[in-house]
Write a structure and sequence with these properties.
The chain contains no helices and 11 strands. It has strands at about 5, 10, 30, 35, 40-50, 55-65, 70, 80, 100-105, 115-125, 125-135.
Length: about 140
């Protein structure tokens, strides 16, 4: 992942497989389908169905193969994350038509070890609902 500033990722974008069945998150953690990418031009996003939830915050975290935990800022940079829900940064993603799309990354991953394990989450009704998926090469 492209490290920007001290430890962040830059240039994040979106990949949404239109027509694909949306997955759901839950408070115990859902296992989501992996995202296969061309590593030289990875474009990763994840759309989830809200099932009536009204998110008050959205979050994206990544567990790197070297053991680092990172979280995405609302500007698309990646910063170290201490693993506590209280320190999560709100990415500000807004729902549309009962779906919430998370922008994860858009960059060249040829100099990175894969898989990267990504967690997407939102807060709704006093709960943190989340799901985990891997970013893997095509």
């Amino acid at each position: 992942m492209n490290l920007a500033r001290t430890t962040g990722l830059a240039g994040l974008g979106l990949l949404v497989a239109l027509g694909a069945q949306a997955e759901t998150l839950n408070s115990k953690g859902a296992r989501l389908a992996p995202v296969k990418v061309p590593i030289a031009a990875a474009n990763v996003g994840k759309t989830v169905e809200l099932g009536g939830d009204v998110p008050t915050a959205s979050h994206v975290m990544a567990s790197m193969p070297d053991g680092r935990s990172l979280q995405r800022t609302n500007q698309g940079y990646w910063l170290p994350w201490d693993g506590t829900p209280a320190s999560l940064i709100d990415n500000g993603f807004q729902p549309t038509g009962g779906l919430l799309t998370f922008k994860v990354l858009k960059e060249d991953l040829t100099q990175r070890f894969l898989p990267v394990t990504v967690t997407v989450a939102y807060r709704a009704g006093g709960q943190l609902k989340f799901g985990v998926f891997d970013v893997v090469p095509e």
